[in-house]
Structures are given as structure tokens and as C-alpha cells.
Q: What sequence folds into this?
């Protein structure tokens, strides 16, 4: 059984990814920061359905806290599937954006990627098999008003994806990013009404978290062994 770690696993997209990986036979470590109770509830539901999962908590921006949790975990088993899903919005038009808003978003997405991914690399490389999937955004590809910080952070994640993929390809490890468009979550429902979605999305609907999870599940599988360094969009034809 392969072990998977999904950061931000208690949110809508993260939870769908956890359920998909568990259904594919992985033991899933469901990460949360403030949503630990939701992560535990999800882990219990996965186990009740015959899967294997457990919840864990740390702040991805705190390197020492990440190390304190992951080091004993890695002493017991190698995590061969990592989904970097943790991320936040803190939107404002750029002239009115505070330094705190800029640094908070960059810290979670970019520094969080480093803090979680780097400790997993050597054990994963020694196993000569691994899958890293970074959850990006259409904002990194097209830009979005009021999200200069978010677009910059996800753009940096895309670049890190391509560079790391080149470093570890010979070790049987693939590194890809998934860039969702408008996905039906509580966050998107407050930002896009049905009329806006029909205008923006050629498919005339929002995507579902499960559709994103299906793409992640494929990229995490043995069938995706020759796909690496790619940014895969899932947006209903917006771009």
C-alpha cells in the first residue's frame, strides 16, 4: 500500500482528492491546520467505507512544525504520493494590497511547498517511485484582477513544478501541477453566480471537486508514469 499526503485535505477539493486516493488503495494522510476536526471526520468516513486514512495537523508555513510532524512519520514509512493542495486567498486590488496580504499568500503556497516537499524528497528518491501533484490555478495562467498575490504564488508553484520534475525524473518520480478554473466550492459560489459562470465557461457550468480529484488520481497512478513537468488545466474550456 502506498502512502499519500494531501495538504489542505479538509477543504472541498482536498477532501475529494483524499477520497479518490483512498479509493485507489492508498493510505491517506489528511493534513489540516485549523480544520483538524474536519480532517478527522473525513478520515473516519474513509475508514468506515473500507479505506485507510488518518488526520494530521501542522502549519505549512512553519518549517519547524512541519519537520516535527513529518520526521517521525517518515521513520515509519516513505510517502510516495504528495499533493500540495494547501493555499489561501487574500484578495485586494494591488494598489490597496497590504504587505501582510502579499506575504500570507506567498508564504502558504510557495514556502509551504518547500517546507512540506523538501523533507519527502530523499526517501522518495531512494524508493525510486513517486508522484508529486501541485494544485495551481487558472489565475497563474491568465491572471485575475484583485489576485496579484495569488497569481504570483501559483505562478511560482508552476515554475517549481517544472524545475523539480527535471531533477527527479530519472528516479521514477513525476512532478505535475493541476490548474483548476471555477470549481463548485463554497468559496467559488460566493464569487460566481450562475449567470457569470455561463458567461465565462464554455461548458456553462462549474467543475466539481471530484473532477479535479479524478485528474489528480490519474497523475498519481502508475498509468501516468511518462507525464511530468506539466501544468494541466481543468476549467471547462475557459482557456
A:
Amino acid at each position: 500500500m502506498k502512502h499519500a499526503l494531501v495538504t489542505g485535505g479538509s477543504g472541498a477539493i482536498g477532501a475529494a482528492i483524499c477520497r479518490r486516493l483512498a479509493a485507489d488503495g492508498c493510505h491517506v494522510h489528511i493534513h489540516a491546520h485549523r480544520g483538524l476536526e474536519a480532517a478527522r471526520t473525513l478520515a473516519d468516513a474513509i475508514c468506515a467505507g473500507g479505506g485507510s486514512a488518518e488526520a494530521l495537523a501542522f502549519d505549512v508555513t512553519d518549517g519547524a512544525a512541519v519537520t516535527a510532524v513529518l520526521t517521525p512519520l517518515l521513520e515509519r514509512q516513505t510517502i510516495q504520493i504528495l499533493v500540495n493542495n494547501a493555499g489561501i486567498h487574500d484578495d485586494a486590488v494591488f494598489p490597496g494590497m497590504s504587505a501582510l496580504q502579499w506575504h500570507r499568500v506567498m508564504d502558504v503556497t510557495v514556502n509551504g511547498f518547500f517546507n512540506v516537499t523538501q523533507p519527502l524528497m530523499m526517501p522518495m528518491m531512494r524508493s525510486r517511485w513517486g508522484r508529486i501533484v501541485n494544485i495551481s490555478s487558472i489565475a497563474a495562467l491568465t491572471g485575475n484582477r484583485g489576485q496579484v498575490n495569488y497569481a504570483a504564488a501559483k505562478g511560482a508553484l508552476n515554475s517549481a513544478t517544472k524545475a523539480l520534475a527535471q531533477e527527479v525524473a530519472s528516479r521514477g518520480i513525476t512532478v505535475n501541477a493541476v490548474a483548476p478554473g471555477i470549481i463548485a466550492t463554497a468559496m467559488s459560489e460566493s464569487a460566481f453566480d450562475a449567470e457569470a459562470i455561463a458567461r465565462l465557461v464554455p461548458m456553462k457550468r462549474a467543475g466539481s471537486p471530484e473532477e479535479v480529484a479524478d485528474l489528480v488520481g490519474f497523475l498519481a497512478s502508475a498509468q501516468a508514469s511518462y507525464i511530468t513537468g506539466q501544468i494541466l488545466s481543468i476549467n471547462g474550456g475557459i482557456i
Summary: The mean pLDDT is 96.
